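Kindly go through the following sequence and its backbone structure tokens. Advise at your convenience whether the structure tokens fit the sequence:

___
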Amino acid sequence: MQITTISFFKYTSLRNKFWGLKMMQFAHKGLANTNGLSFYRLLGSGKGRGFNPLPDWSVYCLIQVWESEEDAHIFFNSSDLMKQYEVHTDELFTLYMKNISAGGTWVGKNPFEKVVDLDPDLPIAVITRATIKWNWLLRFWKYVPTSQQALDGNEGLIYTKGVGEIPIVQMATFSLWKNFEAVKQFAYKSKQHQEAIKRTRKNNWYREELFARFQPYKSTGTWEGKDLLIF
């Protein structure tokens, strides 16, 4: 049964921040031939929450799609790469998730297979990813702060972070919600979010986009001093 993991890495010292940046290139060697790994992406992050064109040099992210949970366990427990990350990071948090639904493509394919049906009472994770057309970059980023206003003080939101492969052009967001009702409240009752959807459809901002929902079921480590699945 396919699972997806998302790992966040936190660095505080200048030396380790530089190491984290360096691993955006050199970690590929330790990931490319990993047994049971069908898809992965190394991602940097933006300052604050949601989309942000300014980089956050202290936080990096790794998304991985596995053929089975056993394959993921072997990697996280015994790989030399993860041992290196553990040495250099101040926090390392990994969330295990099963895909509920996914639409669109990521570098030409959809890597997420539907595994479970939605349980509306359990936490839900959402990953959105887009490649922005060059001629729309300025107008897109100008509107971003308005589109994200509904995230501020949202009681149903556990955590969110903007991440990306190529700064400014290829961006993604990860968000973790208490339940499906919290997701619905944001998606359908937020005027800013609804306006963002309308503008996206009208202006055709993206060359490629993907939207995926997951049911998180397990976590390891801490983030910001706590387990995000305990709230």
Notes: Strands lie at 3-10, 37-45, 59-66, 91-104, 124-132, 157-166, 170-177, 206-220.
